[in-house]
TrEMBL record:
The lineage of its organism: Eukaryota, Metazoa, Ecdysozoa, Arthropoda, Chelicerata. Residues 272-451, 453-545 form the Asparagine synthetase domain. GO terms for molecular function: asparagine synthase (glutamine-hydrolyzing) activity. Residues 81-161 form the Glutamine amidotransferase type-2 domain. InterPro entries: Asn_synthase (IPR001962), Asn_synthetase_domain (IPR051857), GATase_2_dom (IPR017932), Ntn_hydrolases_N (IPR029055), Rossmann-like_a/b/a_fold (IPR014729). Coiled coil: none annotated. Transmembrane segments: none annotated. It holds the Pfam family Asn_synthase. GO terms for biological process: asparagine biosynthetic process. This is Uncharacterized protein. It comes from the Eukaryota. Keywords: Amino-acid biosynthesis, Asparagine biosynthesis, Glutamine amidotransferase.
Amino acid sequence: MCGLGLSLCLGKCCQFSSASCVRQELDERTLNLLCRRGPDHFERISFEMPVDAGRIVSFNLWAAVLSLRGDSICPQPARGSNGLLCFNGEIYNGLNIAPGMSDTAALLESLSSTSSPSAVAALISSLRGPWAFVYICQKSKKIYIGRDIFGRKCLLIRETPCGFQLTSVAYNHDSENENKWEEIPAQGVYVYDLLESSWALIRWNRAPSGSTDHNFAPCKALQHVALAKQRLTCPITAALRRELPKHSSEGDGVTDYGTLLEIYADKVMAFEEVLTKAVIRRVDNIPQRYAGIPIGILFSGGIDSTLIAAIAMKSYPDLTFDLINVAFEHEDSQRHLSFDTPDRCTSIEAFKELESLPCIDTSKARLICVDVPYDELQCSRAKSHVPRLVHPMTTVLDDSLGFALWFAARGRGREYRTAQPYESKARVLLLGMGADEQLGGYSRHAASFKGSSWSSLGDCIALDIDRISWRNLGRDDRIVADLGRESRTPFLDEDLVSFLNDLPLDLKMRLDLPRGVGDKLILRLLAYKMCLKETARRTKRALQFGSRIAHADPKKSRGHYVCNRLE
């Protein structure tokens, strides 16, 4: 993982040389934010490239590296025979990577063997896993940028008077004289032709739900992009099944999980296998030099995080796991200050349930209780560090979730068993994002189903899957990476999403059944199968309410309102 930055001056606004243009620098405060993302290595490369008669383009590249793959740290920006690469991501499939080799080195080696836009874009689109990248091909005089189809890694862009700038995270200046930073839409691979001074986009051939009529939505800096005829193959191999369920099925009216598990045993077993592989991909291949460092799991005690924890601990009995729960100080029903939030209570209950399972050794697992006093939250808000990371998102909900995630990812609290102070050293955090969108976990899904409208429900699920890339994952990447850790999301594994897309809607969710029973049905059946019977019936609670950070805002503004701290 890395933080990457690019500032490019096209030389058109400078009298002599673009190298003399002071506007090509990223702000020092932005560079400080980039440095926090990569504690293992930070480097800057500056160079010039003759483009055409009398015009020289000047580049500044920055990269901060958090090394998580390979036998040694791979410095970035990485130089190849054809150009330079900054890569922020993890490659789980789609590229042959020699043992001990880093993802970045393997990708650069493959990029060095080609220079045509179609071949470069096809190579990038074949990667499985989260990624954002910048590749400057000096041979063809083209710049390639992009994000994976779910937007799991962030990349921001803005225009400047002499060119444009890119960065993983940006310090917002609030200046009327500067263009605003925007997230690059995760719609394919963008190609900037230095000879023509023009953008082109090679789009995915379909959205993650399988829709082929998804709208192209450029950001302001890319509003004049031309759409290439070539299309990239979507990494999600199955389209969402939206056909209406049969009028009757074996599971109709059944609410007992034991009976439902007998009916759907084969599908639940197949789901367990795919989810287990998704978790293993995100824990495997961590270098031996980090042996003994725990794997972190953001842990609310809800069904998503508890299943991830159970599968991870069952798959890796020799590893240490930090299950991290965050709670914000609030007044309880007796008007006493307390950290006994709903999520704190469920995390303790779920941890005890995990301890009771004979198939899982929890002796190396720690439940980390992160308690955030009201005064510390207000002090953090006054310093505005977290709002810088949330930028360019602007709502009250972004603010609340940003602070909750930042304190949780910091992992500084007390160990539940011993009550001793503890700060996690985890470099990888497993998160449960993506389950609700696919499995009917939001209240809007129940609203769309009202009146047994399976068609409306299918449309709502498809919309949620397709807009994952621009809702919150870029924000979450900026938040977690600021603490020198990498977020990994098993529920957004390409094979897992393909598997779930191919399941009938009424096996994934039965919204005609009570809340806590029918929503995320297949996930609940898997939890029941793994003897997590209390977890299987636990209802969803949003992070901002479960952690009680929503109660720490005296204004009690609605989540979709613009937050004045983020303006």
